[in-house]
Amino acid sequence: MKYETVIGLEVHAQLKTRSKIFCSCSTEFGKEPNENTCPVCLGMPGVLPVLNRKVVEYAMKACLATHCEIQPVNQFARKNYFYPDLPKGYQVSQFDLPIGLRGHLTIQTPDGPKRIGLTRIHMEEDAGKSIHGENLGDPDKSYVDYNRTGVPLIEIVSEPELRSAEDAREYLVALKSVLQYADVSDCNMEEGSFRCDANVSLRPVGQQEFGTRVELKNINSFKFVQKAIEYEVERQTKILDQGDQVVQETRLYDANRGITFSMRSKEEAHDYRYFPEPDLVPVACDEDWIESIRHELPEMPEEKRRRFVEQYGLPEYDAGVLTTSRALADYFEACVALFNQPKLVSNWIMGELLRLLNQDDRDIGDCPVTPEKLATMLKLIDAGTISGKIAKAVFEEMYRTGKEPAAIIEEKGLTQISDEGALGQIVDDIIANSPEQVQQFKDGRDKVLGYFIGQAMKASKGQANPGLLNKLFKEKLGQA
């Protein structure tokens, strides 16, 4: 390998406040264009911003959840640039005095856990949204929707310690999980409340100095972040192999073509002419306030993962999957409280449940199978009422219709056959019609028992009790 990939990520997460950062306008998504606006967020002359206290508290909570040091004094600044979606001609952000510094996140890699440093977390207001005419049937015009203007954001900046596109994806998964656990952001990428910019550069292996970095802007899915970085690494590798220099710039990702393309040359921080926001006093975060926020934090993903291993005896992999989201972890624990076989519950959630949810692109919060229904079905398997194979069909029907498992079993006549007399006749018929396999069994080829059980399950339409079949075949073959 000639080059080492160096990646740093900048993530903007919208905070879950009901009103904007400096005014009382609603942050509700999907309203009519420019409905959620007022003179303050539109930057009219003579208006003054008032800081939303909840924004600061959510930002502090995010800092604590990511092990950042909350700064006792932090300050807003004006970031000056001109763009149609920025009504004031500047963005109120934080620069040299952010709210959080020196944090870290732990990601899972094929080589084990890896700690990624966080440079800073700072608060800022969002800009509006430009809508160009080709999307509105008039290619000669552009429009601006200011509903997002003033929506509160935190920007989380990682250290350039990610070394692959896979690492970057894992980092985003971990960060999203932490913010959702802390309940400070819904991290809905489709609605723009979790957005990622990636800074990507290459350097010869062994070189300490960073290469020229390229910023990949506003990528809206974890999959596309990974693909955009992979493409950019390949593009920069070709440039360096040709003896040319990588140009510092901002690029966008075209998901349809799977390529990045140039948007603009990259501005440096000093181009923004930052200076302290004169209309807002510095924010003081004293120890009492910080501690009160710390006490509001729930159990975080790393802690919950460790507890799932220790308390429920789950493998590390299972615990990692189940704690990816707080809602999924809560679902698992609710089910185990009703049916105390943690590994079996884990298998069903990670297998059938997540398969169907992923297939339909649904979240666990939209799952029609409640923990109570899943636990009831598992109890029916445990009692021998249905087999594991039949249970999969029952579960899918529960998922599609929301019906109770008992009702589905009764409607479809799926009760497991555990009557020794009824199964004995099936076993006798199969043995009588399989002389070759009977001889193989007598010759010591025990694996042929699977053939007999498979034939019996087929004859009983999957309703035979597998344990009882196993017992009957062994008894009758031993006598044959």
Structure notes:
The chain has 480 residues and is an alpha+beta fold. The protein has three domains: 3-291, no CATH class; 301-412, no CATH class; 420-479, Orthogonal Bundle (Arc Repressor Mutant, subunit A), CATH 1.10.10. The protein is 39% helix and 20% strand. The chain has helices at 53-65, 165-181, 222-241, 287-294, 301-312, 316-322, 326-338, 342-359, 371-382, 388-401, 405-412, 420-432, 435-442, 449-459, 466-479, and strands at 3-14, 69-70, 73-74, 77-80, 90-93, 100-109, 112-125, 129-132, 142-145, 152-158, 194-204, 214-219, 249-254, 259-265, 275-276, 283-284. The strands form four sheets. The protein has a nine-stranded mixed sheet. A hairpin with a 4-residue loop joins strand 13 (249-254) and strand 14 (259-265). Helix 5 crosses helix 6 (316-322), helix 9 (371-382) runs antiparallel to helix 10 and helix 14 (449-459) crosses helix 15. It is elongated and about 95 Å long. The N and C termini lie far apart (65 Å). The model has no long low-confidence stretch (mean pLDDT 91).
Overall structural class, as computed from helix and strand content, comes to alpha+beta
What's the structural domain tally? 3
What is the number of strand segments? Answer: 16
Instruction: Report how far the terminal alpha carbons are from each other.
Output: 65 Å
Mean pLDDT: 91
Q: Radius of gyration over alpha carbons?
A: 29 Å
- Report the sheet with the most strands, covering strand number, pairing sense and barrel closure: 9 strands, mixed
Helix content: 25-40%
- The oligomeric state of the chains shown is single chain
Q: Given the structure, what is the number of helices?
A: 15
What is the general shape? Answer: elongated
- Report low-confidence residues grouped into runs of 5 or more: none
Q: Could you give the order of strands across the largest sheet?
A: 2-6-7-10-1-11-12-13-14
**What fraction of the residues are assigned to beta strands by DSSP?**
15-25%
